[in-house]
Amino acid sequence: MATDTSQQLLKGSIYQVFPRCYSKKGSLKEVIADLDRIADLGFEYLYFLPLHEPGILNRKGTCGSPYSIRDYYEIDPKLGSLDDFHELLAKAHGLGLNVITDIVINHTACDAVFTKTHPEYYLLDENNQPTRKVPDWSDVYDLDYHNEKLQAELIAMMEYWARIGVDGFRCDVAPIVPLDFWLRARKALKAINPDFFLLAESGEERFIEIMREKKVPILTDNELYAAFDICYCYDLWDFFKEAFNKETDLREFARVINYQQSMLPINNIKCWFLENHDQPRIASIISDHDRIDNWLSFVLLAKGMGFVYAGEECYDQKRPSLFEKEEVVWNRSFNQEALIRRCNKIKKELPFSSYINFRMIPYRSILSFGMYDDDHEYLAYFDVNNRKERVETSLKDGKYFNLLNDKEVEVHNGLLLVDEPLFIRIK
Length: 427
Prior knowledge:
The chain contains 13 helices and 18 strands. It has helices at 19-22, 28-33, 35-40, 82-94, 113-117, 148-164, 179-192, 205-213, 221-224, 237-243, 250-263, 289-301, 337-349; strands at 13-17, 45-48, 98-103, 107-109, 140-142, 168-171, 197-200, 230-232, 270-272, 305-309, 357-360, 367-372, 377-382, 389-392, 398-402, 407-412, 415-418, 422-425. Strand 15 (398-402) and strand 16 form a beta hairpin. The chain is globular and about 75 Å long. The relative contact order is 0.12. The model has no long low-confidence stretch (mean pLDDT 96).
C-alpha cells in the first residue's frame, strides 16, 4: 500500500469481467444490462480485461489476446463504442460501482500504432529489431522505458482514461515496469482523482526467478507497494495451489500467510482470489461445492480485498481462452450469489477504521483466522476440506452467532463443530 492508500479499500471487493466471453455477443451493452445484478452482489469494484482491439500481426488464436493492444485510445469495435463505455461508466457509478480497466504498458501488439508513429519507443534486439523479454509472448513487442518521451506519452494516455471517468487501473505485469514510472503515474492520476485506485498484478515466485536469471529488473511486492494500493496474492500462489489439495496439511499454509503478513506493513492490502483469467477455474480443481463455498468465504472475508472472476459464482469449470470466443456458462439455478452477497455485506460493515491485526490460526484440515483491533475482534473458521470436524478453540464454552447465516453455534468442552463457513464476532 502507498502512504496515502485508504484503509476503506479493505471493505471492498472486485468483480472481474472478460467482455468478449461474458455473453453470446460479447459486448459492453450486455455487461451494462447485468450491472444491477453485480451491484446487488455487493461488489464495489468492477474490473475489465483490456477493452482495446487486439493486434493482427503474430496474433494468437482466432481473436487474439486482449493483452496485445493496437491502440490505447480506442475501444475494440467488437465490444462496442466509446459512447457505450460512457454509458457503462454512468450506470455503474449510479449503482455505486467503481470501474477499473486493465492497463497494459509493458508491451503493445506487434502492429500497434506506436510501431509506425514511434518505433523508437520499443526495446530492440542485437539486430535493432523490436523484441520482448518473455519469448512466449510472441504476439507483443516490449516498450523501452529508457525513453522519456514514451513515459510522458503513457502517462498522458492514463490521464485520458482517468478524465473520462475510469476509477482505477489493474496494472498488467507491474513488476517489470520501472518503479519510478509507477510513482510518477500515481502522482499524475491522483491529481485528477484523489481516490484513483492502483492494483498491481505482482509476480509469482517462479516468474521472479526467471526474470532474475535473465537479468531483467523485476520488482517484489514490498517495492510495488510504494506506488500501488493493492498487490495480487501471487507471492503465495504456489501455496494456494497446494492447499486446494484435500490431503494437504493446512498448518503450513497458515504459517506462510502469517509470515507474509509479518514481512509487510500492518496496513498492507492483498488481493485474494481463487481464480482469474490466467488461472484455472476453481471448480475444475475442486468438485465439491461445499469446499468451494468455504474457500470463497475465506478469500472474501480475510484481511484484504476479495476478488471473483465472472462465472466463478456459477461454479463454471472452463476458463475462457484469451485467444478465442468462449462464453461463460451461466447456471442461474445453482450458484454462490447468496453467499457472495452475505460475505460482501459483512466486510462492508466491519467496524475497523484505521488498521486490522490479522493472524491465521493453524489447523490441519480447516482454515481459521482472527481479525482484531483495540476494540473489536472476530474469529473465522472454514471447512475447506469438508471434514465436518469438531476442533479445539480459544472460545469459552457457550453460544455464538454466525454472521454468515444468522444461526447460533455452540462451544462445548472447548470444542467447536466446523461444518460450514463460520464468521463470529467476539467483541
